[in-house]
TrEMBL record:
Key words, A-Z: Membrane, Transmembrane, Transmembrane helix
Lineage, broadest ranks: Bacteria, Pseudomonadati, Bacteroidota, Flavobacteriia, Flavobacteriales
Spans traversing the lipid bilayer: 32-54, 75-94, 100-124
UniProt organism field: Autumnicola psychrophila
UniProt protein name: Uncharacterized protein
């Protein structure tokens, strides 16, 4: 149940930030900051609202997943990819354990990995190479 809650949090954090960024026109940084601050503030002000595990981890998962929502619509144009990236982020977060302990930027790195995996899976599913790779190959040949 704890894992499912964090997976849902990751998907919600990525999607909410994506909507605030692109549809509410808040901008990437402001959308991530406002939403992450709000979730963190609620957990800080009401620590007994949820069990300690959730109070500790929900703000981290939400903030990390909000980095996914900062992605450009050119890179990730569908909500499905954003949700998949949020789920992938949560799964990596849950399974990384102490691997990233002591390293700065673990949430951002994990978010980047999640976006790359989701975009890669979408590219494989479409059976087309990623556009940037095609452009790079064209430049390299010239």
């Amino acid at each position: 149940m704890e894992s499912l809650t964090l997976i849902i949090t990751g998907a919600a954090g990525a999607t909410a930030t994506y909507v605030a960024n692109h549809h509410l026109r808040m901008g990437a940084v402001r959308a991530s900051a406002v939403l992450s601050f709000s979730v963190g503030l609620i957990m800080y002000l009401f620590p007994d609202l949820l069990p300690a595990y959730y109070t500790r981890n929900i703000p981290l998962v939400f903030m990390g997943a909000s980095f996914i929502g900062m992605v450009s619509q050119k890179v990730m144009g569908s909500f499905v990819l954003v949700i998949i990236s949020g789920v992938i982020f949560s799964l990596i977060y849950l399974n990384s354990g102490k691997f990233f302990a002591g390293f700065g930027g673990a949430l951002g790195t994990t978010a980047c990995i999640s976006v790359l995996v989701a975009v890669g899976l979408a590219s494989i599913q479409r059976s087309r190479p990623v556009q940037k790779v095609k452009q790079f190959r064209k430049r390299k040949q010239n």
